[in-house]
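Supplementary Note 3. Input sequence used for the single-chain structure prediction.
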Amino acid sequence: QTHHQRPPVAEAGGVCLPGGLSDTCRMFEDVVVVVVVIVVVVVAAVIVVVVVVVVVTVVVVAIVVTAVVVVTVAVVVVVVFVVGVAVAVVVVGVVVAVVVAVVVVVVAVVVAVVVG
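The predicted structure, written as discrete structure tokens, is reproduced below.
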């Protein structure tokens, strides 16, 4: 047999053993390379998607938390301001009323003394 003699069988059950040079063996190696590349690409894509999702989630949560905190602080500030203004108005009102009452009493006493 002079026509392209094949080396001894170097594959068992489709698994390429070291030194295997047959076409099937080469094809198997190519398939393995392709499969490995596909798996690596898919895994990389999945990792990227997961990372993106996690980052987006973290950013969104951070934005929402910040918004909630800002709104809460704003509400508290407004409430404190309104309450402060109300208290100030009441205090000023009471002070004015007391002053007016005192003035009226003093005037009344003075008038009574002068007239009397």
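The chain is about 80% helix and 5% strand. The mean pLDDT is 82.
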